[in-house]
Specification:
Four copies of one chain form a homotetramer. Chain A is an alpha/beta fold. Chain A is built from eleven helices and 14 strands. In chain A, helix 3 packs across helix 4 and helix 10 runs parallel beside helix 11.
Chain lengths: 348, 348, 348, 348
């Protein structure tokens, strides 16, 4: 249930509603945004009786929420969330390009690639310091040394950095260095990690699990918002199917569904979906055309010698082409994506 | 194996090569296109000995074919196939839009929709006369009466018509009326139907099976080319996965793979992939952005009363928006899609 | 709707009900089995008004059918169907073993294998004369010559024979020779073929499509029953998933679901599910343990030289082991499988 | 690479081989079991030069390992691992039945169910204290209070207890109470958790990820063995596919593949695969017939009021039937499962 307050409701009236909610054993959560205050009622079992709140001073409406997710839903929060990272806006109306190597290998490697991708048009730099690897015998990332190199890249290039956190134990460390903290596909339902992310003051990039439904994905985001962190960016990266001409099957229909269901920004990772360099540019164009808010792309200046995922990393020149192409597509979509049946009206 | 002839090879020399191939028990098939003649060697078991042909007069080269498909492959036929239907070109450099209702319901219905979609920018009209239906108790289409209505639409609007053939028995009938004969997803490996299509003089639109790999799909097309009909258009329409927010999962990575592997045109059917109206326009934009050669879209002037698939049919006004949007995307891609690593170089 | 007649209803009363049904534009179909007559009402759109029939003489009850499939459902036909093939009973209480090579290659090959599998315990012989093949260049079967060899096997060994029909055109021919006509996974929704099978007087073995839901599968069977042929045997053969350690993923949960939903016999084909010889025996044991009514297994005396599917064919000695093992499991399950929550009560 | 020592190799000779391995920058790991010592060479990049070790005193052989997993493979460790838990043996030749409620709800609930399942034949008790839940608003388990109830159940009934650990942070706590520590499907690639499990002295029950290949699953187990804990039990619990008549699709072909590839015990969880009570008994029979070493089954004395997963929990009486049925099937399989092509030879 969502309690919508009058525009002129006083802090005392709002406080009284919160008290009334909590006296029933529910959790009350204020919803940011808009010109009026709304209060979500969480942790109820079974339906909530609207009449408990409708009579209270300053209450305009009490709206039942039909979805299992509450705080991430458009029902509760109709306006698009725009995540701000060091002055860069991520969300509706903005085209966000995150690029960099799969793994940080050295300062020289990171800086070389960062300069390439910044020049081509990337606003944020990505690179793994802690790498989740199928095999215990594979390169596991440089760890804290990698984080320090990321900080060096930020200082040198001015680009905010995105890097993955693998576990609760190293969360504090990653949080100290990263501008955006990535939670990877294998951890989408690592609930301890999600709860910790909910207590973070940094934006979270939440990748879809490789076999997750959209409902499960939004519920994972709900864990983070429920914990108090509303700065969540969703990232579609392909799902596992019988298809084997690409590593995963990029599910672009997820983008319009998420845009309709949730106010959170959604970007696409075509590199992990494809697993092959020659599909990355076409899938990037398609991702922007379907109205995702941005891309996260793997780029390496020397893919043949990359310590991980070289086969799917673009050469710098290919990444330049990619940026040129998607900017043109983004521009014709116009600045705003509506959430109506026909999501885009192209302004001539 | 592909026998490439000299540009100046005489008909007698070509004939001698065909005879040499057939004397070994293989099948010889001339490959159309280009300024020189090539001859495919088919139905071999195990490798073919190139030296059998290299010495013959007029033979320039003998190239082993590494793919299980031969005639549909770029190895054998590097140039893009352009299918011509009543003066409309389908293939590289052209944007093809096919639209219409799922099923032909009446002359009035068909003509109403046809005029709408022609006005919006569709070049071809689609509509089912014979409908494959999961249930024997569902509306099965108007049959021959539907075909006659399609002919009426063509006469009135000038649009060539696309309609599905369900079986060998009614192939002659459908062939008589249709400009493009569609083979549906459930029939992709109906080999009798594919062989009959191979003997047709009409272009064939071959939908991907809902659980088909690209190799299986191209092999199905190979049946048609092997039978003598080189006018095949491929159509991606989504595959069946665990995902249920769309009826099928549109596999757009199939497009760059097919463009690389085969010379045949490929279009996308976003309506059957989505199964829901509100995903059709975003997926259409993505399909053109990924570099498909066109779309086939379901449109109905009164979807609420459609006899089949109403929920996924666009309203005419939505279809107008769709056409506007995809034309803009098509235009910025430039006229030609290369088949290199980065498939498109956008001309400024 | 199902109209249940009194036990003592006269032929005239039954006829009157049929007339009443047809006068409303519906189709009436008598349901075989039991000690009383029931009449299914088919081809209705929307609900049927029970009061139209409840007052008629001899009518005991009028039961709405909640499933999309009617004639194949337990609602309409609660008793198990037992298919009789030359004195061999297939269905509840019987263990049916069908075995033989993927393709008939020669009379010597067929007879050699037939004698092996009969000796081991198979009651029916399988072998393909018309083979659906992904590639037009693969061995397509011996055609009518293969059918004649099958007839020879039947005459020599006394085993009824099962063989696949690929299309409407060759149905008459296959029907002439086969004791059970198989419709393969790629043809599960070849509706012309299903309608033709519905007019056949031979039992039909209907394989599940590789991406078919159970509802779609039962609807395919419904086409056959609706056409007038109630002798249908279902065959689970694995579905296509992301898993690649077996060719398909055998979906054994389909067996209890089908047993609950339908009265038709269901067997399992572990060979095509596995695609690898070393999984066939374990999956065969599991299939009988889950309460399938039988198996169809590929056996070849010389798998290394088989013209198709050699890798999944058992050696004769392995097939003997298989038969020994599954008979023991079948025996402890007891003779009858209940369709209650706990489907089997093992008699001590 | 696996260094196999002579039977008479001295501790000094073994130590010298370890030193030689580590001097090359590799990791040496002794392999338990058999009458001779073997030493695995881990963390090599690229092939290892056998001649470095073949000449050393006491070395009998140096065998390259072809699989990406080493310590879990049959190549490195041919004998079956038998896990001992409080005198109960889990692995080849033993039938292990683990049963209990999805979640511990109260001492009364736990003890009631424990007595039922012990009486029916279960040797171990399962119950969740920390529950991974899709929604942050669902019941999350009793936490430490649940663990204390489990200890109470063990004391009262003598049954060892199995419970899930959800994260690194609570691992110490769970380890203190549990006899077997379960890692759930969502955590199969939570590498921090796997590394922590590798340092545990308690056996680990590792469930297959819902979209994991067998190679990924065995690699996850490799993390645990590489950490030093060789007591790992694998648990198949179904994979996510397009199929929706069961919650997941139980992949029983995984059992023979795992039995061939690895020496670790493998059991099956039919409850989470099915998600519906009426499929659990048939799938349990199939699991034992396919030669799994045991089952983990959800049982509740009052499923209608269970706090989680009631719909898939068996009633106690159904569980009795299940135990009766699977014991009979286990007995006819004989005591030993071979790992040859035809895995079981039934002793008459």
């Amino acid at each position: 249930m969502l309690i919508v307050m009058d525009k002129k409701a006083t802090p005392q009236e709002i406080e009284a509603v919160v008290t009334a909610i909590e006296s029933k054993g529910y959790t009350a959560r204020s919803i940011p945004g808009g010109e009026r205050v709304s209060i979500g009622v969480l942790n109820n079992e079974g339906p909530v009786d609207a009449s408990l709140f409708m009579g209270l001073p300053g209450v305009k409406d009490a709206i039942p929420v039909t979805r299992p997710y509450k705080l991430v839903s458009r029902e509760v929060h109709p306006e698009d969330t725009i995540v701000d990272v060091g002055g860069i806006s991520i969300g509706n109306g903005h085209l966000t390009i995150i690029a960099g190597p799969c793994a940080i290998e050295s300062e020289a490697q990171a800086l070389t690639i960062a300069k390439h991708v910044r020049h081509a048009g990337a606003q944020l730099f990505r690179g793994g310091a802690f790498k989740p690897r199928t095999s215990p015998y594979s390169f596991q990332g440089l760890g804290e040394e990698g984080l320090k190199i990321l900080a060096q890249v930020r200082e040198t290039t001015g680009m905010p950095v995105v890097t993955e956190v693998m576990d609760f134990e190293t969360f504090d460390l990653v949080e100290e260095y990263a501008d955006i903290i990535q939670i990877g596909t294998r951890n989408m339902q690592n609930f301890s990690l999600l709860r910790r992310a909910g207590r973070s003051h940094k934006p979270i990039l939440l990748k879809r699990g490789m076999a997750a439904t959209i409902e499960e994905w939004l519920m994972a985001a709900e864990y983070i918002l429920e914990g108090g962190n509303a700065q969540v960016i969703l990232c579609e990266r392909g799902v596992r199917t019988f298809v084997h001409h690409s590593r995963n099957t990029l599910d672009l229909s997820a983008v319009p569904v998420v845009l309709k269901e949730s106010h959170l920004p959604i970007i696409v990772d075509p590199s992990h979906a494809a697993g092959r360099r020659d599909q990355v540019i076409p899938l990037s164009r398609a991702s922007i055309a379907v109205a995702a808010h941005g891309l996260m792309v793997e780029v390496h200046h020397d893919p043949g010698n990359a310590l991980s995922d070289g086969a799917q990393s673009l050469y710098p020149q290919q990444f330049e082409e990619l940026c040129d192409q998607i900017k043109k597509i983004f521009n014709i979509l116009g600045n705003n994506v509506d959430r109506c049946e026909a999501p885009i009206s192209i302004a001539e």
